[in-house]
From TrEMBL:
<comment type="similarity">
    <text>Belongs to the NAD(P)-dependent epimerase/dehydratase family. GDP-mannose 4,6-dehydratase subfamily.</text>
</comment>
<dbReference type="InterPro" id="IPR016040">
    <property type="entry name" value="NAD(P)-bd_dom"/>
</dbReference>
<dbReference type="GO" id="GO:0042351">
    <property type="term" value="P:'de novo' GDP-L-fucose biosynthetic process"/>
</dbReference>
<keyword id="KW-0456">Lyase</keyword>
<feature type="domain" description="NAD(P)-binding">
    <location>
        <begin position="35"/>
        <end position="368"/>
    </location>
</feature>
<protein>
    <recommendedName>
        <fullName>GDP-mannose 4,6-dehydratase</fullName>
        <ecNumber>4.2.1.47</ecNumber>
    </recommendedName>
</protein>
<dbReference type="Pfam" id="PF16363">
    <property type="entry name" value="GDP_Man_Dehyd"/>
</dbReference>
<dbReference type="GO" id="GO:0008446">
    <property type="term" value="F:GDP-mannose 4,6-dehydratase activity"/>
</dbReference>
<dbReference type="InterPro" id="IPR036291">
    <property type="entry name" value="NAD(P)-bd_dom_sf"/>
</dbReference>
<dbReference type="InterPro" id="IPR006368">
    <property type="entry name" value="GDP_Man_deHydtase"/>
</dbReference>
Length: 384
């Protein structure tokens, strides 16, 4: 059986990026990935290549490089050297696509067996500043992709994964949150993803598509975007520890999140598309931790103990060794409406998918801090 995956976005200016597999469009299993250049896209690409998929990504045209997270997965077309795993020998081959109708062209050409719809304006705070854009990309974009699948007559042949989110729960109704917990999104991002959740479910019911929502709680890694709170903290802690930065400025220190490792979560995405029938699943760790604890543990990895003083916007974190203020609250990072508590219940995924997170909170923090420390140090060495 031919298996082709597509990791896709629903953006106005994507390009076409085939990766892996030895000859284009002939591999037995293939996937399509909009959002391939993001954190999850890079881990999912690794996983699918390992499983022998031909992977096609859709990327946006950018004036600067946006494929950094994928560089280890392909080699220069002039060298034609197969990587040790012999999986990543295909060069980046961009095909500029400018209109949503070109999604139809890509789908018709790739004929994916699986589509992972990861592309999104994924920053919650930014969504308040770019609400209409976020609604268009994250909400309507999902509809465009689903319609393109139907236009190509692939609705009975393709399996579709929608990157849904714990942000759908928003204002706490009850915890732990599972597949039956009511939604109450608290941001334009959450509202756009609510539309995407329901349109995915609607196309499943209306047209018999194999379409799943993965309701994923926060997942992080050394590849996490630098403006999300975990990575912002681990980078700053590393820089502060070697004297490159003085202070870290943060918003709400008391928000609680259920944080897992992205590598574990992409495994869950893939498992959702291998079931006999399409269903929606929560992926979470079942633990919750405040931002404040993420800060303390990150500095602790570097041998720095934090003492908190003051309250509200006046609160600061002090390095107990030298008395220096290393964390300050800056109200510009507060959100107009906040999601105070996320705590997921992954029981259904554990039971039906055999999925379980492998990386715990402390190991996640350590891995991220150590990666950032290594990067900071090598940058300093390069400059010297
Ligand atoms: P990232 O922000 O790291 O990656 C987002 C991807 O979407 C990138 O490839 C990005 O391309 C692309 N993208 C951004 N803007 C657009 C646009 N206008 N049109 C099309 N594509 C665009 O996100 P993650 O990898 O962390 O998350 C993947 C998906 O999962 C997202 O949909 C996110 O909302 C969702 N999600 C994430 C969770 C998490 O904790 N990480 C939890 C639950 C859901 P470029 O590189 O060019 O910017
Ligand atoms: P989130 O992630 O909004 O949960 O969305 P983020 O890391 O941005 O925020 C988590 C919590 O930390 C608080 N916070 C700060 N956040 C940021 N970014 N910067 C700060 O300086 C800061 N200070 C405190 C926030 O207020 C929030 O409470 C992520 C994204 O990946 C979404 O795409 C995904 O759907 C959800 O996770 C699940």
């Amino acid at each position: 059986k031919r298996k082709v995956a597509l990791i896709s976005g629903k953006h106005p200016l994507p390009s076409h990026l085939p990766l892996g597999g030895r000859a284009p469009f002939t591999h037995q299993i293939s996937s399509m990935l909009p959002g391939i250049t993001g954190q999850d896209g890079s881990y999912l690409t690794e996983l699918l290549l390992e499983k022998g998929y031909e992977v096609h990504g859709i990327i946006r045209r950018s004036s600067s490089f946006n494929t950094g997270r994928l560089h280890h997965l392909y080699v220069d077309q002039h060298e034609r050297v197969f990587s040790p795993s012999a999986l990543a020998a295909r060069p980046l081959t961009p095909v500029l696509v400018t209109r949503p109708t070109n999604l139809v062209y890509i789908l018709a050409q790739v004929q994916p067996t699986e589509i992972y719809n990861l592309g999104a304006q994924s920053h919650v705070k930014v969504s308040f500043e770019m609400a209409e854009y976020t609604g268009d990309v994250d909400g309507l974009g999902t509809l465009r992709l689903l319609d393109a699948v139907r236009t190509c007559g692939l609705e009975k042949h393709v399996r579709f994964y929608q990157a849904s989110t714990s942000e759908l729960y928003g204002l706490v109704q009850s915890v732990p949150q599972d597949e039956k917990t009511p939604f109450y999104p608290r941001s334009p991002y959450g509202v756009a993803k609510l539309y995407a959740f329901w349109i995915t479910k609607n196309y499943r019911e209306a047209y018999g598509m194999y379409a799943c929502n993965g309701i994923l709680f926060n997942h992080e890694s050394p590849r996490r975007g630098r403006t999300f709170v975990t990575r912002k903290i681990t980078r700053a802690a590393a820089d502060i520890s070697i004297g490159k930065q003085a202070c870290l400025y943060l918003g709400n220190l008391d928000a609680k999140r259920d944080w897992g490792h992205a590598r574990d979560y992409v495994e869950g995405m893939w498992r959702m598309l291998q079931q006999p029938a399409p269903e929606d699943f929560v992926l979470a760790t079942g633990e919750t931790h405040p931002v404040r604890e993420f800060v303390e543990k990150s500095f602790a990895v570097l041998g720095i103990t934090i003492r908190w003083e003051g309250s509200g916007t006046q609160e600061v974190g002090i390095n107990t060794k030298d008395g220096k203020v290393v964390v300050k609250v800056d109200p510009q990072y507060f959100r107009p409406a906040e999601v105070e508590l996320l705590l997921g219940n992954p029981a259904k995924a554990e039971r039906e998918l055999g999925w379980k997170r492998q990386v715990n909170f402390d190991s996640l923090v350590r891995e991220m801090v150590e990666a950032d420390l290594k990067a900071s140090r090598s940058l300093v060495e390069d400059q010297n």
